[in-house]
Amino acid sequence: MQAGPPEALPGGDRGDGSRPGADFSLIRYAQCWEDADVLLEALDVRPGDVCLSIASAGDNSLSLLTRDPARVTAIDLSAAQLCCLELRVAAYRCLDHPELLELIGSRPSARRGDLYRRCRGRLSREAREFWDSRPAEVEAGVGSVGRFERYFRLFRTRVLPLVHGRGAVARLLAPKDPEERADFYRRQWDTWRWRAMFRVFFSRFVMGRLGRDPSFFRFVEGRVADRILDRTRHALAFLDPAENPYLQWILTGGHGAALPHALRAENFETIRARLDRLEWRRDGLEEHVAGRKSREIVRFNLSDVFEYLPEEGYRHLLRELVRVGRPGGRLVYWNMLAPRRRPEELADRLRPLDDLARELHAKDKAFFYSALRVEEIA
Fold this sequence. Notes:
Blueprint: H1 36-43, E1 50-54, H2 59-64, E2 71-76, H3 79-94, H4 97-104, H5 112-120, H6 125-132, H7 135-140, H8 147-159, H9 166-173, H10 178-189, H11 192-201, H12 204-211, H13 224-237, H14 245-252, H15 265-273, E3 278-282, H16 285-289, E4 297-301, H17 311-324, E5 325-335, E6 350-352, H18 354-361, E7 371-377
């Protein structure tokens, strides 16, 4: 079962009350920047489960199919994001695995236009019009053309070379044992220039102008760059950069030998075979669950949506999700900058799995999030 984008793409700024002023007509994220390996372990999807997933660019909604759910419903307020998901679905149907990697941009290619044309017939009219009007973005690799990815490209091509050259990047990404990684980071990478550059480029002001929409920082307090720098230090010195697809993309513009879960060869045929279990709708999370009476949803992939809500709005939405979720089901979401977690008023209805969340957050390859929340419906 599939539901494509609605009759028209949004024409300009459009909000849902949680992200005032955000523009939903552009691709904000051309990839999912949350670690699907962590997500799948946190959600513990079982065969036959019904899943609700924030669509973003679609990667993690597709990854959920590998766990044999009965249905995955991917929702997003952005028609542009749903066009990203729809093109991915068409690519799984029409291309082989190496061709999919070329279209996304994980691998170099001189034929992305031809690959897109092979997928085009599987798209809805709205998605065809969206991608037909963006030939340069298709040729660049559809995983590289979001606002967030362009922000990282600017960092990679214009800013990072002022501090570390290609040789240093190659050495950082080369396989090392844990002691060697920590030593390399301390002696060669973590210079005063690196820290100074990082604090400027990943500041609230620069991220708001070039990376995330400024309205997304509405409920964030404190120094943004210092928090992200702490997590980056963890990813570079304690996790293995050679196995981190998100870091590989940020620093090289491709995935190298490391691929995110949905793009790995061993998952390709499974995802392709289960695409009919995926549906997508242009909808807000609160609107999607409002009025729903059945408690069939078992697994909720919520991305970091609660960051963009005021405290009372977050509490209200969480109550609604618990109301429509099946007992024993799980909610998984990230905090990047704004702290969100189960309020005490829901203590009898929602149980935090804090030990599991801390264990998974410690190995989260999408390293810039400050916390992972895993909560179970009573």
